[in-house]
Design a protein that fits this description.
Chain lengths: ~220, ~230
């Protein structure tokens, strides 16, 4: 049987990338806790610690162990999500074959640079997570991940006064960077950016809403 | 006959370590050898690769050549079974099938020809050398080059891992592979002869069965590590 195409597949695949320590795993755990009552969810992790990310997800009560698959990336986290997606694709497809129904698969990358994006052959949408402690000039630096991720999440906003980081400047820079499509063509509206603080809002409600919309759209294409 | 004409460019495409079929995430046992201190520089890497060349590479190449020649699904099943019983480590059996599935996945998108369907009956997917042989046939690569491709892959995987794990000079690692090139050619030629003999007698049990007991044991151990960079 031929593999399902993105249009016929029931499962939404979302890639979550971002620099080391920006809060990818915490965001994944938060999303699982918030959405698990309404959606059937699985996670693929790309951490070098085989069990570390998986244990965080299990310990925080987010998911059962059989819904989490670790993938080793041979010191090449970027290769695993972009240049050679074979191992991640197999992990995702085997989860989709094993768990029915499965509404959402979150694929968490290993730590990335600002130039790392997911292959469209692996995911339907991608989220790039940065944090305010990484420097408030990060959005201005651009790079494919900042400019083209379907959702940019600026995490740990509660730390802004301590860094200090200028959130308004980050918002302006992100909007400007994400207003242009490749080739310098202006988009009708800039790609979305969300500011989050998991210590203030442990469920990441804004990001969860963004995902809910996509799931509804997938179930009922006419509503899009 | 293959769908495409015989092509050398296809060989270069498939033999490239960047061919996207998941091999980059594997070390071919090198991660364990590095952790145990057995491989620590280009010289010890050369010795490690020489060992692989005269064991795993010869076996993989003879199976790739046999599978490349074969146009019958049931016989391919036999060949796959013969490879299965040659892997003593359950972890390596699982790994080989996983790499075989990933190779077939990429091959189906790269060379969409009916030949690849010959392996559909294998429920868990084919072993990697069997998949490689059939992918070569689909790509219009001759059996002798399928054998060469298997040898190169067996050497390339640990060599690439050594660059990442030990910080070896990549140019020096290329030099190690170049030193092994003539032996690699001879191994591929020997593998092709063995594949032809087995085919002639219609007895694929005749294909070589050289093992590496230490690597079988370390593969089982490696799979239990909490922190590992490579999948095998």
């Amino acid at each position: 049987m031929p593999p399902e195409t993105p249009d016929t597949r029931g499962t939404l695949r979302i890639g979550i990338g971002g620099p080391v320590g920006s809060g990818k795993t915490s965001l994944v755990a938060a999303l699982c806790r918030t959405l698990r009552e309404e959606l059937s969810i699985a996670v693929v992790t790309n951490d070098i610690h085989t069990k570390d990310d998986a244990e965080v997800l299990i310990e925080r009560g987010a998911l059962e162990p059989d819904r989490i698959t670790p993938v080793q990336t041979g010191c090449s986290p970027q290769t695993a999500i972009r240049d050679d997606i074979a191992a991640n694709l197999e992990a995702v497809e085997s989860l989709e074959a094993r768990i029915a129904p499965l509404d959402l698969v979150l694929i968490e990358s290993g730590g990335d640079s600002l130039s790392t994006t997911f292959s469209r052959g692996l995911i339907d949408r991608q989220i790039f997570v940065i944090d305010v402690a990484g420097g408030d000039r990060l959005p201005r630096k651009g790079g494919p991940a900042i400019t083209s991720a379907d959702l940019l999440v600026v995490n740990k906003t509660d730390l802004a006064p301590h860094v200090p980081a200028d959130l308004e400047m980050m918002r302006r820079d992100a909007t400007a960077q994400r207003a242009m499509a490749p080739g310098g063509v202006a988009r009708d509206t800039p790609l979305p950016t969300l500011f989050t603080s998991l210590s203030e809002h442990p469920g990441a409600p804004a990001v969860a809403d963004w995902i809910r919309e996509l799931v509804i759209e997938r179930r009922n294409p006419a509503s899009a | 006959m293959p769908f495409f004409h015989m092509t050398r460019s296809a060989l270069l495409l498939l033999a490239d370590s960047r061919f996207p079929a998941g091999a980059y995430a594997h070390s071919g046992g090198l991660e364990s050898a590095v952790a145990a201190g057995r491989v620590h520089d280009t010289r010890s890497l050369h010795e490690f690769l020489n060992g692989r060349l005269h064991s795993a590479a010869l076996v993989a190449a003879s199976f790739a050549a046999a599978a490349c020649h074969c146009e019958n699904a049931a016989t391919l099943g036999e060949i796959d079974h013969e490879y299965d019983v040659r892997l003593l480590s359950p972890t390596l059996r699982t790994t080989s099938r996983r790499l075989g599935r990933q190779l077939m996945h990429t091959a189906r998108a790269t060379w969409p020809v009916p030949r690849l369907g010959l392996l559909d009956a294998l429920a868990d997917g084919p072993h990697q050398p069997v998949a490689l042989g059939v992918a070569c046939a689909a790509a219009g690569i001759a059996a002798e080059d399928a054998a060469l491709c298997a040898v190169q892959g067996t050497l390339r995987v640990p060599a690439d891992a050594a660059i990442k794990l030990l910080g070896l000079n990549p140019a020096e690692v290329s030099g190690v592979l170049a030193k092994l090139a003539q032996d690699a050619d001879r191994t591929a030629a020997k593998a092709l002869t063995m594949a032809r003999m087995a085919q002639l007698k219609n007895d694929f049990g005749m294909l070589p069965a050289l093992g590496s007991p230490l690597l079988d044991l370390t593969a089982e151990d490696h799979a239990t590590w909490e922190v590992r960079l490579f999948a095998s």
